[in-house]
Amino acid sequence: MARKPKDAGILHGHHVVTGPELRATFEAAGDPDDPVRLRRRVVHGVVLVLLIGLIVAAIITAVAIVSGQIKLPTTEASDEPATVCPAATFDYTPNDQINLNVYNSTSRPGLARSVADEFLARKFVVGAVANTDAGYRGVAAVVSGAAGQSAAFSVQRNLPGSDYYQDDRTDPSVDVILAGDYESLAPPELVDQTPGQLSCPRESRRIADDDKWPVIPTAGATP
After folding, report:
1. 17 in any annotated domain
2. pLDDT, tens digit, for every residue of 63-96?
3. What range defines the domain where residue 199 resides?
């Protein structure tokens, strides 16, 4: 019985790839007009461009933030203390209706007495006149309770540059605490008696006093 001739394309049950078949396979894979390959190249190109764009944008943004051209929102505004200066508008209280205490927190001898005499000449009702220790820096601190705010407003019109503070007193009296920058009262004929607001210049300073009250006056010798 004659044997069947062996098929050269089969080896141990597996198909043997021929040269022509291998060339045909690579030619098909390398076809530049293959729509699948073209689509992949387009997608890869788009992704690459997007990544490069994001990196460039991030670098530009970082440089702008460092240089201050872009400012990120912060909580600084919300952390700033609310104003403590009363917002109400006050009429000028007549001088003879204001009970005033005058304190000298400077090293200038006799300052409280001389300023108190000036207030007396303007018909203010002057009570205590004394030296005191105070941490306030400025022209003068004008201190009153809520009941004395209108009177404090009138005092500030006579004492330009002074800083208003409110304490817990219930009477309408006003304390004037003279500080290192004090020079003089406003000339009587130049005192503005139109309605207005209390003045708290410390709130606009770069460095403000943290204390709610500048001092609790204590009498000393030689005002």
Report:
1. no
2. 877 777 776 655 444 444 456 789 999 999 999 9
3. 95-204
